[in-house]
Design brief:
Structural class: alpha+beta
Number of helices: 2
Helix content: 10-25%
Distance between the termini: 12 Å
Strand content: 25-35%
Largest sheet: 6 strands, antiparallel
Number of strands: 8
Strand order of the largest sheet: 3-5-4-8-7-6
Order of helices and strands: EEEEEHHEEE
């Protein structure tokens, strides 16, 4: 799978407050509690550990990804979904492609992290749990291919990569995820 190893943004992507600059154009925002504007501005990006090949800094300085990169986005005609769950405000931001890839109705809003497994068959849920644990508990980038259960009963494979967003104190403040259809076997 051609997913990023150090960032959920393509190399060279400009960021503002840790989010891709101008990325809010097709985003669909879920209302966040406590009067938050749902912008999901989520601190500093970066970080890692000895296993990830990054130097572990959380000072917001840019780091080159140490692994392969997830293609050229829409330029090659591939549907590319992006999502972010802000753990501090409970704000959730999905772009329109994420709804399509996960088989969700945009009128119902994005799924919270605890509802995400509902879209997968039971057999794929342990992989999703491992990926979430790697990202949210261990602060590592996680990637894998999951099957998404459709209303008609069909399962479509989706490649996904998630990265934790670290705050200034090094704690995980958000989870970002990129998704795309898995190539046919």
């Amino acid at each position: 799978m051609n997913m990023p190893s150090g960032a959920a943004c393509p190399p060279g992507t400009a960021t503002v407050d840790g989010a891709p600059a101008g990325a809010h154009g097709s985003d669909v925002h879920a209302p966040a509690p406590k009067g938050d504007d749902g912008s999901g501005g989520s601190g500093e990006a970066g970080g890692g550990d000895a296993d990830s090949g990054t130097d572990g800094r959380v000072d917001g300085t840019a780091q080159e990804p140490s692994g392969p990169y997830l293609g050229g986005g829409s330029d090659d005609g591939v549907v590319l979904g992006s999502a972010e769950w802000d753990l501090l405000t409970d704000g959730i931001r999905w772009n329109a492609e994420t709804y399509l890839l996960l088989g969700c109705d945009p009128s119902h809003g994005p799924l919270s992290l605890d509802r995400l497994p509902d879209r997968l068959p039971e057999a794929d849920r342990p992989l999703l749990r491992r990926m979430m644990t790697d990202a949210l508990v261990h602060g590592r980038v996680a990637a894998g291919t999951l099957r998404i259960r459709r209303a008609c009963g069909r399962h479509d494979s989706v490649e996904c990569a998630g990265e934790p967003v670290l705050g200034a104190d090094g704690t995980v403040t958000a989870l970002r995820m990129l998704l795309r259809p898995a190539p046919p076997h």
